[in-house]
Each structure stands twice: as structure tokens, then as C-alpha cells.
Fold these 3 entries.
Entry 1:
Amino acid sequence: MYSATSVANMAAQTESTEPLLTPSLNRVNRYRNWRLIRWEALALAACLALAFMVSNALIALVCVAAAVVVLILLIVELLGVAVAESVLSMPLRKRGPFAIVAGKRIQTKLADIHSVALLPSRLGFKRIEIITAAASYVVAFSNGDARRRFIDDLRARQPGIETHTA
């Protein structure tokens, strides 16, 4: 059984006004796009399976080359969007028809970020545009909750960041 003091302590802990999921400001928080990671893993498996199933060496070589490209995309996406104490590291996405796919990463200082624009969804991904003095970057999230947690984390680390819709 619980003593009266332990019950009172548990009640005091549950009545706390602090949010349950607060971003930790002294560690790196990562936000991964799990839906895109699943699609890239499936594409990698399909390329490798096709490479082993075909009898033509040229087609098998093309499949292996495609698997290497998909593996690079998968590694970039597995690192996710990392928010550290003073740096934001994220996959660099191009604009246009392939705006979801990222082939390399970029880093920017949190102090350089002026605002965050909420973009319309594309292919079911919730997107934002991070605007700095030098450039703007598109970040895609698999759902709106991950996007909200990311923006809350940015605001906690850099309170002057504005949010608006594009």
C-alpha cells in the first residue's frame, strides 16, 4: 500500500502545470520523417531484389546503381532534422516536382533564422519553410504533430522566431 505522503507527492506531480513533452534545450532533438524513410527502405529493397532476380548483367548493374542512390537518400533522411543548442541541421530539399526528396544536408545557425512559414501539404507531408537572411529551406514532416513539436523546439531555443502561413 501507499503511504499518505507518497499519495500526496503523486498528486502534486500530476497537478503540475508544466507540459508533459517539453523540448530539452541542452541536447540534440531529432525529428525524422518516418513515412519517407519507409518508402525509401522499400525502394532500396525493390532495387536490390530486382538486381538479383534479373539475368541480364546490364540491368542488374543499373538496379545496383539505383540502390546506391536510394541508400544515400535513406541515410540523409535517417539523420533527420537535428536541432542542437545553436545549430539546425536538416536535409536540403529542392523546390519543384521532387520537393520531398533530399540528397544532401545543410546546417544553419539558429540565430540566423528569421521566421518559419507553414506551407501547404504536399503528397501528405506537412511542410514548413525556414527563412534566414541568406536563403530559405523547406522541411517536410510526416504529420502535423511532428511539425508542431519542431516549431515549439525552435521557439524554445530561439524566442524571436516568427511563424506565419505562406
Entry 2:
Amino acid sequence: MGERPRIKRELIGEIIVDEATYVANKSTERARKVIDSTVHIEIEIWCDQHYYKRAIVGDQNGKREGIQEGVIASLVARSINHLLYFSLKHKGFSFINFEESIRYQRVVLKENGTTGKVNVVTEFHYVSRNKYEVTVITAMQSEEFKIGVGQFTIEIDGESSILSKNEGGKIVEIDTFN
């Protein structure tokens, strides 16, 4: 005698999702989704002449390695979600400049490079509705890069990051994003 065929527990038919059902979300146990929406934000990436001089010509130590335009543009583009997350979560962290100022807010983006830490000084500005521009002021691949007092840094490591601030000459970690 052969083995008896087993009953397979498989769904037969179509699964119907009741969109009128109330389910739990982040705010309540009983909510109904009305719409999913995606917001389009345009970001222009610019590079200051100072950056180009350091990347192409160099300084007293010669041409700076590891700060090619493609490397820097990629880091800036990948940092946007991290910047938005920290800006929305921490009232004291704002990275977008909206009006004329004597001293604009700058953020240093950091990431491990081929021979050291890549440091990119950026300045973000509001241009118009859904449009922003970021200017790379300078970049350097060095473990010894100096961060100004009161300045924020975001160190990117794959999909995670660390927000830090120079408070009175000491780098203080504020938060992480995973």
C-alpha cells in the first residue's frame, strides 16, 4: 500500500482586503488609510570654485585624492534622507538656509574613503517650492579634518548615519539613524 496523499493547506480563491476596515497605525489602534502620496523634491548639486581648485589643482600638499566629483556628488545625494530625518527629529538641527545671512549654516558630510575619512562641507539653500540647491564648499580626505564650534556633522556608513555637533571644541554624538 502506498502512502496516503496529504491534505495541502493552501488558499483557494481571491483574498479580499476590506479597505473600510480600521487598523492600527503609529497614532491609534483604529485608523483607515485615505491615500498614499509621494512628494517630489528637486535638489541641484553645485561645487564651489574652492572645491574644484582642491580637487583638480591641489594645495601646498598637491592634488587632493579621494574627492573626485562623482564620489562627492554620490555622498551628497545619499545624505538627503539622513539630513531630513535628523532635521525633522531634532529641533536644534536645521540644515537648509532660507534667507540672506552673514554666516550660512553648513553641514559636514563624512564617509570612509580609500585612504581616510572623506569630509565634505555643504551648504543647502531653499530655491523655490520643492526645489533646493546644495553647494559643495570644499572636500578633503583626512582623519584630521577640523570641525568648527557649533557645526554639525553627519557620518554616513552604508544605510546608517550618526549626527554629531562640535560643542565647545568637543565632538558630541547626538543621534543615530539606521
Entry 3:
Amino acid sequence: MKKTIVTFIIISLFFCINCRKKSSAYQDYLRPGSPEFLMNEGYALLSSGDLRNAEAKFLKALKKKPNLSGALYALGVVYLNQGKFSKSADHFKRVLVLRPNTIDVYNYLGVIYSETGRLDKAKENFLIAANSPHYKTPENAFANLAMLEIRRGRYESARRYVQKGLIKNNKFSLLLNALGLILEHEDDLSEAIFNFEKAVSFSESGDITFLINMGRVYGRMNQKEKALDVLEQALSKTNSAIVRKQINDMIKKIDK
């Protein structure tokens, strides 16, 4: 199973859009022990990467208020990151019943279907997200569509989605990485490197996947020193034994 990387933004009082106009609802978010307060505690834990304790807070909130959509949404994110795809999908679908315009849920459902091999359903959900006027970051869905098409070997279709996404955000690293993969497939290695470098420069963390892709292409170009430099940099950015083995195998192959 591929590693699922989910990017999410924690927004204070995310699901209390009109709380300030409804003082009693706003007070619920400030009252210790209330479902809303527990939910916000869970968001803080989720933001720090503490999935286990975040899950416990959200479950406690939902025990008190079963239809608290923000907690349902957050549990969907937690379970997605834990690889519990069925539970994640169930929670996201409940959010859509309560808040049909929470369009990023379709993007998450697309990820779930992609990870579980239901590629047509994945594409359907990504398309809903990408083309909805209610989705604030359609570039996410376009990047997922591009990677889905690359996975299927449909590079022309992937390029189309990259181009549509770059119109929305021409500095979105996931789209630039996808474009790099398309160019690598076409053996336009210099342009592939250019786009991988742009992906790294626009990524806050210098995503390790982009560095691995750069290292591989530099290796194909017989630029040994650059390949080794990039892969060694990537090695320092992961604690995963599986990823470290992958990088070390690449380094050994290049550094003969």
C-alpha cells in the first residue's frame, strides 16, 4: 500500500462560521467540557500530529453531540491518516449529509477510493471537488487527478489536469511534481528536473518525494554528484525504514 499523505489546515472554530452572531453557540466553543470545546482540543492535537489523542477527543465530543460535523470531519482525517479507509469514508459521508457544501470531503473520498483501488470512483470524486465553485483549493483535486492518470499510464490526460490546476495556482508543488513525472516519462529530463526543483522550492518542507524524484532523474542524466547530493538530503528527512532503504538502494546503484 502506498503511503498516504494528507495535508489539512486547522482553522480555529472551523465549523462555527456564524458563531459570533449566535452568542450561545460561540460560548459553547469556550466552555470546557462542551462538545465544541473537546472538538477544538482535538483539532490542536491533530495539528501537532497526535492522532491517537485527537481521536479520543473527537469521539468524546461525538458521544455528547453525535451530529457535530466538525468532529466527524476531523475523525475522517484521523482515520485516513491511520489507513482506516472504511471508517474514514463513513465519517466523511456523514459530514456530507449534514453539510453538503463541504466540498473538500470529495477530495478526501477520492484519496480513499484511490488507495483502495476503486479508481473510477476516485476520479469521480476528484472531479466533483475540482469543478465545484464551493471548493477553495481546487488545485489539490487537480493534482490528485493528475497523479491518478499517471498511475493509469494516461499521461496526456494527466497533463491536461496539471494545466488546469496550474491555472488555479501556478506555485502548487504537487502539480509541479506531477508535471515533472510527465516530462520524465517523455524523456525531457532537463525540464523534469526544472519542475521538480520548483516543486521543492514551493514546498514548505521540501517534500522528500520531490527530492527522490530529482535524484532518480539526475541519475538517469549521469549527473552522479547532483544525484547523490539530492538523495543524501532526502535521506536526512525521513524516519521511515522503508523509505530509507529505498533511498539507500538508489544511492548504491548510482555510486558504483
